[in-house]
Write a structure and sequence with these properties.
The radius of gyration is 23 Å and the shape is globular. α2 crosses α11. By secondary structure, it is mostly helical. It is 81% helix and 0% strand.
């Protein structure tokens, strides 16, 4: 019986192996100098994006009616603001601890994924809504529910919260490992990518080849540019997680690059609204007036219909 029991040296070696395994899981696999550079640039874009999205939320929320299309943009700005806020917290947490693990990080990561998924679902719904409005304008005006915008935004927030909460429970409480995170990104890819791509192509054709009226050109251009930059900058983060999960030998900083690009995308959306609103307009206008010009087109078109 004594021979079957492990020696103190064996127990100590097992404890050290377990501790080293946890440290490898917690510590970032990339070079610390490169991760530090990614963290600094991410923090910079997070701060700038939080200021810009906060300004959009304040200006549109205080000046636009609650039953207009601008409710979508307000909720999208809220999702971008939340994503940037918690990404900033995570990077500051890494600067002090040099770890991407433990309870505070996992909680912040859950809320970060919630905001990221909510932004994707909102953009998908926005793209579908715009396609219906330009392809079937009379049907869209006559059959659209009065409180559709508010209801859709509430449903998207609820679905994103449920998905993130389930994953947080599986990872933190049940201790099943971080590999379950990939399923949330797979859901984003399967649901959002085909619909976004088809809608973006449809809007592009409508703007460039079909639509000769300038009435809603600014709104459609702003939505199309937002979709384009999201597909180029923010959406690849889903693919990066999938690649890291499937392939063993990938660049260790691939996901850091994805988060940096996602922060850039969330930061430039307010700039897109502003530049599109000022297009071919040499008069000096405040940002509030420019935003109202972009999103007032929907109300003017509704009144004329």
């Amino acid at each position: 019986m004594d021979m079957a029991s492990p020696s103190p040296f064996t127990v100590l070696s097992q404890i050290n192996a377990t501790s080293n395994g946890k440290n490898r899981a917690c510590n970032d696999s990339g070079k610390e100098e490169e991760v530090l550079i990614f963290a600094i640039f991410t923090i910079l874009f997070c701060v700038l994006g939080m200021l810009a999205n906060g300004l959009v939320i304040w200006l549109l929320g205080s000046s636009v009616k609650r039953n207009t299309f601008a409710i979508y943009i307000i909720n999208l700005s809220v999702a971008d603001f939340g994503f940037l806020t918690f990404e900033l917290i995570i990077e500051i947490h890494w600067l002090f601890t040099r770890l991407y693990c433990n309870f505070p990080y996992e909680l912040f990561q859950m809320i970060l994924r919630l905001m990221y998924s909510a932004g994707q679902f909102l953009l998908t719904v926005i793209s579908i809504d715009r396609c219906l409005s330009v392809l079937f304008p009379i049907w869209y005006r006559c059959h659209r529910p009065v409180h559709m915008f508010t209801t859709v935004c509430a449903v998207i927030c609820a679905v994103s919260f449920i998905l993130s909460s389930i994953l947080f429970t599986i990872i933190t409480v049940l201790r099943f490992g971080n590999s379950w995170v990939i399923y949330q990104f797979i859901v984003n890819i399967v649901l959002c990518l085909p619909l976004m791509t088809i809608s973006s192509v449809t809007l592009f054709i409508k703007i460039c080849f079909v639509s000769k009226s300038q009435r809603r050109r600014k709104l459609l251009t702003a939505i199309l540019l937002t979709l384009f930059f999201f597909l180029v900058l923010a959406f690849p983060l889903n693919a990066f997680y999938f690649i890291r999960y499937v392939f063993e030998h990938v660049h260790p900083n691939l996901v850091h690059y994805g988060y940096l690009c996602a922060c850039i995308n969330s930061s430039i959306n307010p700039m897109i609204y502003y530049l599109v609103g000022r297009q071919k307009d040499k008069t000096q206008r405040s940002m509030k007036e420019v935003l109202q010009r972009v999103f007032k087109e929907e109300e003017n078109c509704t009144d004329q219909m």
